[in-house]
Design a protein that fits this description.
The protein has 340 residues and is α/β, with parallel strands linked by helices. The chain is built from 15 helices and 7 strands. 39% of the residues are buried. The structure holds adenosine-5'-diphosphate (ADP) and magnesium ion.
Length: 340
């Protein structure tokens, strides 16, 4: 079975990671896929969302990471039709400290999955990460082939992402050459506000066709479902939340990934370089009337430079984006110091 290993990650809290993991997992399972969800957040929101009594669990993903249990002993198999869960509880909060000196601490999860998958083949494994870039998130990244980043369509949505992209780049170099940023998923989209539209346009400008066509709209039923221990399909199958997650699952399972494998991308890049004349150097930030709000929002976030194009008109590689971002942030810090 060709399993897709997906880390759902954003080091910000409250952007919709857990909501995405639960409901995308449930939607994929409803579509006939065998799905395993892995709760890697010590707050165990994913497990609670699926109505698991976390204080009564005999063992959890923590026991797997510290080598006391096999993953198969911990997984709550078929918690829902075709949907299984490796639950977490508060024990996991000790893992960051306890694993500091463990040999191969970043690949404990990857190692645990190998024997599990031999006996329990899955179509999708989704890892729900805590809002930090610690050892638990690194374990998810080391075990994955794809990263999904949910981004809340609100002000400051893009701030902090350079750090996350840097970590993904580092893991790809050092630990897991198969890993790639696969999808950016706009969440908490408010159809009534201009701000949501502007931020969505910014997200699309930066991440291009990595951004899913489906955006997850703000929907109070999605916010209510966890307190009932239900997925959105169990809680309100007629809601817009239910509609959005069904559409997202279709989009995700329809195509493997929009970004071509790295070698093919590099070949395509070289061919394009030979064929096309160099594009305009660094387009100026957009300040046209009517776009003032969007330009201001980018400027306020020190992110205008992200809109500049790399040579040959292609988007700048992550490495360059991060370097520019560091330079701009350093300039901002220096200016603030002078003012002080
Ligand atoms: N699309 C949405 N509409 C309304 N509320 C949402 C939506 N997505 C998430 N929420 C709510 O926002 C809060 C944070 O979401 P959550 O998925 O827990 O974020 P994270 O896992 O990134 O911390 C939760 O109370 C959740 O129910
Ligand atoms: Mg969460």
């Amino acid at each position: 079975m060709n399993t897709r290993f997906i880390t759902v990650m954003n080091q910000k809290g409250g952007v919709g990671k857990t909501t995405l993991t639960v409901n995308l997992g449930a939607a994929l399972a409803r579509g006939g896929k065998e799905v395993l969800l892995v709760d890697l957040d010590p707050q165990a929101n994913l497990s609670i969302h699926l109505n698991v009594p976390i204080n009564e669990l005999p063992c959890s993903i923590y026991d797997v990471l510290v080598g006391q249990k096999e993953l198969a002993e911990v997984v709550l198999s078929r918690l829902r039709t075709r949907l299984s869960l490796a639950p977490a509880n508060i024990d996991l909060s000790g893992a960051e400290v306890e694993l500091v000196n463990a040999v191969g601490r970043e690949t404990l999860l990857r190692d645990a999955l190998i024997p599990y998958l031999r006996e329990h083949p899955c179509d999708f494994i989704l890892f729900d990460c805590p809002p930090s870039l610690g050892i638990l998130s690194l374990n998810a990244l080391a075990a994955s082939k794809e990263v999904f980043i949910p981004i809340q369509t609100e002000f400051f949505a893009l701030q902090g992402l350079a750090k996350l992209l840097g970590v993904i780049e580092l893991i790809t170099k050092r630990l897991n050459r198969d890993l790639r940023l696969s999808r950016v998923i706009p969440t908490l989209y408010d159809t009534r506000t201009v701000l949501s539209k502007e931020v969505l346009a910014d997200i699309r400008a930066h991440f291009g066709d990595m951004v899913t066509n489906t955006k997850i709209r703000k929907n109070v039923r999605l916010a209510e479902a966890p307190s009932h221990g239900k997925t959105i399909f169990e809680y309100d199958a007629a809601s817009t939340g239910s509609e959005d997650f069904s559409a997202l699952a279709e989009e995700i399972s329809g195509r493997k990934s929009k970004s071509p494998p790295r070698r093919r991308a590099a070949r395509k890049g070289r061919a394009a370089q030979a064929a096309t004349p160099p594009a305009e150097p660094c387009a100026a930030p957009e300040t046209a009337p009517g776009n003032g709000g969007r330009a201001a929002s980018l400027k306020a976030q020190n992110l205008v430079f992200l809109k500049r194009r790399h040579k040959n008109g292609r988007a700048a590689p992550v490495r360059l984006v991060r370097r520019r971002m560091r330079r701009v942030l350093a300039r901002g810090a220096a200016a603030r110091a002078v003012r002080a």
